[in-house]
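Example record for the data management plan.
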Amino acid sequence: MESATISVVVNGSPTEEFKSSRGLRQGDPLAPFLFIVVVEGLAGLVRQAVKAKLLSGIKIGSKEVEVTFFQFANETLFFFFCEES
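Corresponding structural encoding:
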């Protein structure tokens, strides 16, 4: 069985393709759980970066609520600006 190749889009440009060697495949019952575990870790890192003023989210609404990311089902969208040092 040949493994599929994967490419990730970063800032609108795809990375070089690479082959996956291990892990869960699409449709695996553990895939949603793994997604939640990984995204929670990533969300924690984003929160720490915002607290350290390395990143700042976009401000929305009349109360200017700061938003750094939005999660729905298996999608995650990030909204932030990098502060120049």
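Summary line stored alongside the record: The chain is about 25% helix and 35% strand.
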